Amino acid sequence: MSQYSAAGVDIAAATRAKELMADAVRSTHGPAVLAGMGAFGGCFDAALALAGMQAPVLVSSTDGVGTKTLVAAALGRYDTVGQDLVNHAVNDILVQGARPLFFLDYIAVAKLDPAQVAAIVTGVAEGCRAAGCALIGGETAEMPDVYAPGAFDLAGTIVGVVERTAMLPRPDIVPGDAILALPSTGLHTNGYSLARRLVARHFATDGYAARPSILNGQTIGEALLAIHRCYLAEVNALRAAVLVKALCHITGGGIYDNLPRVLPAGLGAEIVRGSWPIPPICQLLVDIGGLDEREAFHALNMGLGMLVIVPADAAATALATIADACLVGRVTATPEVRLVDA
User: H/E/C letters for each residue in 99-112?
Assistant: First the structure.
């Protein structure tokens, strides 16, 4: 055994992980990828990818999946969090109107397990393929003195592009504009520190294997690992059908922190209680945690995955375009976000 291996870093395992993930990574590549896996830096042909655009604006974002990794590790299931990572990132740049171009991931572990890392990266590649996004690089770091045994972290960076004239949000948002919601699949990638604490407290015996009746046969672990929904196809369909004035990805901070980020100064919103379905896992956490309404809608998305602002007279067309979209509220002249009764 080499001294480096004795120190906790296994170069051979890293090589094996790269071999296992290679085909999945290459499956995301198109003609614009000039150098990817194995190169010191990913190379992307911008002239080819941006051909025909008049004033292309690059839009980038970096994020992670938070402590959802601890749920994945506890269940020994690593095939979903990579998709979570990509879908979250795609949704973030979609809010500014951008389509994804390429993605880079970062995985850090205490001890490198090639099969585990390959499963994570295969999930990243699957998310990238679905979004038409090239996975052109990344890093796998083995850091035994930084991470606890069995723990891992996952983050990524996305770069996309939008015509400057098509950037969102638009400046012409006015009181009375309709707010639609595209439902979430569950917690997505936020609220897991709260969720893990509540599950540990209230289901101490069964933990993630518990099957409370509200989950309709699912275990808590299955519900918590539901994949973060990507809204790229739905938003593309909406933008082709109606004037979309703004999008809002409901992530950490819920509706209270995120919706004001896309509204002009001086405007706010009313969201109507009961106008959309709340995912069972969100309702379960509210019930077992005794969360009041403000905390629930601040810590969790509560089923409001992506909000879409359209002119009031375009709401019916928008609802007809996306089968599971819901009309949930309206823009107001009062600069606050409020939950109201119908």
Answer: EEEEEEEEEEECCC
Same-domain pairing of 147 and 186: no
Q: What is the pLDDT of residues 58-74, one digit of tens each?
A: 999 999 999 999 999 99
Looking at residue 11, what is its pLDDT? 60
Q: Which residues contact 208 (CB under 8 A, 6 or more apart)?
A: 71, 74, 75, 199, 219, 220, 221, 224
Instruction: Copy the structure tokens of residue 257.
Output: 């922190």
What integer pLDDT is reported at residue 24 of this predicted model? Answer: 77
Per-residue pLDDT, 37: 72
* End residue of a domain, out of 130, 165, 200: 165
Q: Are strands 178-183 and 33-35 parallel, antiparallel or unpaired?
A: unpaired
Q: What is the CATH number of the domain that holds 16?
A: 3.30.1330.10
- What count of other Cβ atoms lies within 10 Å of the Cβ of residue 200? 11
Rounded Cα distance between 21 and 25, Å, is: 6
Q: Are 19 and 11 within 8 A, CB to CB?
A: no
Nearest CA among 136, 155, 56 for reference residue 96:
56
- Measured at the CA of 154, the angle between CA 167 and CA 63, to 5 degrees, comes to 25
Domain membership flag for residue 104:
yes
User: What is the extent of the structural domain holding 248?
Assistant: 178-340
- Is residue 263 domain-shared with residue 160, that is, in the same domain? no
Instruction: Return the SS3 of 84.
Output: helix
In this structure, what DSSP letter does residue 211 have? -
Q: How far apart are CA 216 and CA 207, in angstroms?
A: 17
Residue 264 in domain: yes
